[in-house]
Amino acid sequence: MADHIIKQAGLRMTAPRAKILDILARSGKRHMSADEVYRELQGDDAEIGQATVYRVLTHFVEAGLVSRQSFDGGHWVFELNRGEHHYHLICDRCGRIVEFADGLIAGRQSDIARKHGFDIRNHSLVAYGLCRNCQRSLARDAAPFDVRPDPTPEPGARRMAIRAPRATVDTPGDRPFLDPGIKTSAR
Amino acid sequence: MADHIIKQAGLRMTAPRAKILDILARSGKRHMSADEVYRELQGDDAEIGQATVYRVLTHFVEAGLVSRQSFDGGHWVFELNRGEHHYHLICDRCGRIVEFADGLIAGRQSDIARKHGFDIRNHSLVAYGLCRNCQRSLARDAAPFDVRPDPTPEPGARRMAIRAPRATVDTPGDRPFLDPGIKTSAR
DNA sequence: TTCAATGCAAACCGTTTGCAGTGTG
DNA sequence: CACACTGCAAACGGTTTGCATTGAA
């Protein structure tokens, strides 16, 4: 249950919070937008407003349960905080996301920050390009332009100029989150 | 003049384009939002609409003259493309931005990408924290909360939850852009 | 002379906020 | 029983778009 995790984080337990944490924990997608969380909730019985989703997610971020970032300007993307800081590889075409951690980069970056007198609290590295599959697809049908990504183009996709992903899943090393007694650094 | 640069990039020359490129080139700020560009234009004689600013900037990005990114979810920030890819250190408190390039990080990252089968086209590394000045200020008046940043708080600043910069200047090694015959890779 | 670029204003869309009602601690 | 949390709907703010007009090539 998500219950004790929320309390351990110093938050009041409520139904919306439990459900949202649950969704983040169980969803196939590691990275979800507020709207995706909201829609997932709709299928459920209880009525939970968008505002609540945003507020709860913000609370989670502040409490350190969840991390938030925006891949290249779109909307916010939320991700359960599994403790290990990591970076992202994103496919411009299909939206596939691959996570990776790298001490060398982290160290180098913090050296540089120190040299500039910065006290770093957070950082993100995101690389955009084509995943293996999409490289293949593109080569295969050698279509010069306007090839539709294999994963469904998603109906309400706004023309995001230049770059237009809309993340789908993918990540190595899956590990349960809610079940084991995870130690939340309460605040 | 910006004229031949725009043409070299394969774009039709128009007054708005010349002016906007000029502003990006001459402004003290290396990183400008569309709105900042727009406001800078207002002081000028000619009437140029916001839509045009957005459209022109988008064209510039597509032509490779300008690069665009969003520091942690806010709006887009545009920056004249000076050829050398670089990363950013951003002060959470005053918005100061420091740029740095690092081959080691770039190399490492592209190795990792290759290992995952990705063909990277672009990447960004941004680190958030406190610059030296802000660390000092905070220590000095040891105010636990709600300290106002030294650089004016900027009136229309939306409460961006968690993080709320609003960039001001700062960058090492200034180098003119428009004057020398820069080689634009036209497309 | 044609078709891309512009200006204006309205539309969009993700996110935030005000307010009255609800339910946790 | 107080006060944080919720739902709803309206507000917000950055960006995009439709359409008639202008102007570069």
Automatic annotation (TrEMBL), chains A, B:
<dbReference type="GO" id="GO:0008270">
    <property type="term" value="F:zinc ion binding"/>
</dbReference>
<dbReference type="InterPro" id="IPR036390">
    <property type="entry name" value="WH_DNA-bd_sf"/>
</dbReference>
<feature type="region of interest" description="Disordered">
    <location>
        <begin position="144"/>
        <end position="187"/>
    </location>
</feature>
<keyword id="KW-0238">DNA-binding</keyword>
<feature type="binding site">
    <location>
        <position position="85"/>
    </location>
    <ligand>
        <name>Fe cation</name>
    </ligand>
</feature>
<dbReference type="GO" id="GO:0003700">
    <property type="term" value="F:DNA-binding transcription factor activity"/>
</dbReference>
<dbReference type="GO" id="GO:0005829">
    <property type="term" value="C:cytosol"/>
</dbReference>
<feature type="binding site">
    <location>
        <position position="91"/>
    </location>
    <ligand>
        <name>Zn(2+)</name>
    </ligand>
</feature>
<dbReference type="Pfam" id="PF01475">
    <property type="entry name" value="FUR"/>
</dbReference>
<keyword id="KW-0678">Repressor</keyword>
<keyword id="KW-0804">Transcription</keyword>
<feature type="binding site">
    <location>
        <position position="131"/>
    </location>
    <ligand>
        <name>Zn(2+)</name>
    </ligand>
</feature>
<feature type="binding site">
    <location>
        <position position="123"/>
    </location>
    <ligand>
        <name>Fe cation</name>
    </ligand>
</feature>
<keyword id="KW-0963">Cytoplasm</keyword>
<protein>
    <recommendedName>
        <fullName>Ferric uptake regulation protein</fullName>
    </recommendedName>
</protein>
<keyword id="KW-0805">Transcription regulation</keyword>
<comment type="subunit">
    <text>Homodimer.</text>
</comment>
<keyword id="KW-0479">Metal-binding</keyword>
<feature type="binding site">
    <location>
        <position position="94"/>
    </location>
    <ligand>
        <name>Zn(2+)</name>
    </ligand>
</feature>
<feature type="binding site">
    <location>
        <position position="134"/>
    </location>
    <ligand>
        <name>Zn(2+)</name>
    </ligand>
</feature>
<comment type="similarity">
    <text>Belongs to the Fur family.</text>
</comment>
<keyword id="KW-0862">Zinc</keyword>
<keyword id="KW-0408">Iron</keyword>
<dbReference type="InterPro" id="IPR036388">
    <property type="entry name" value="WH-like_DNA-bd_sf"/>
</dbReference>
<dbReference type="InterPro" id="IPR043135">
    <property type="entry name" value="Fur_C"/>
</dbReference>
<dbReference type="GO" id="GO:0000976">
    <property type="term" value="F:transcription cis-regulatory region binding"/>
</dbReference>
<dbReference type="InterPro" id="IPR002481">
    <property type="entry name" value="FUR"/>
</dbReference>
<dbReference type="GO" id="GO:1900376">
    <property type="term" value="P:regulation of secondary metabolite biosynthetic process"/>
</dbReference>
<dbReference type="GO" id="GO:0045892">
    <property type="term" value="P:negative regulation of DNA-templated transcription"/>
</dbReference>
